[in-house]
Amino acid sequence: MTGAHRMSDSKSGQAQATRRHLEKIGRRLFAQRGFAGVSAEEIVAAAHVTRGALYHHYSGKDGLFEAVVDTVMGEVHARLAASAESARDPMEALRKGIAVFLSVCTEPATQRILLIDAPAVLGWTKWREMDAKYGFGLLKQAIGGAMKARLIDKQDVDLLAHILLGALTEAAMLVARSSDQAAVRSQAEHALASMLQGWRRIDA
What we know:
Layout: H1 3-33, H2 40-47, H3 51-58, H4 61-85, H5 90-104, H6 108-122, H7 124-148, H8 157-177, H9 181-199
């Protein structure tokens, strides 16, 4: 390896470390005080980096927040995927996924970042695009599996996945904005389970 390559790798590693550090600090501050309650100056001060570093890696506070949202969504996706692995069949995977997702939505940090601030900061269209990037594939896989197992009648998989994703998203928003989150979460989980039961074949 040449000296130039070593220097390039070193700079790349330093850049990645800086991004990870900024995201860690940003995530903590956004979770504690919300996007509007944190300034770019506070982020760089807490991270012990220059304002230029923040703008170089993320083009500012908004870009950092989007990166944090993407990371949190990825973690939620991993938890949903893990819950599906222990399911006996695709329909149970959907039910478990719904329960896990609504449970995650009551966690203060996740709730603040994903459900309260993200739609307002990123805009509804961008937020839905990011939500679909992670959630849509899992739902499509489970629904498609249920059809192959003859638990659900064959129909448009994408359509059903979009319908369920929309229902889950609205349910999560209702839970996040409720004064009695435990009760609304329970009601939402029951309603979504009933919807899934309605999709099930009579002879399944």
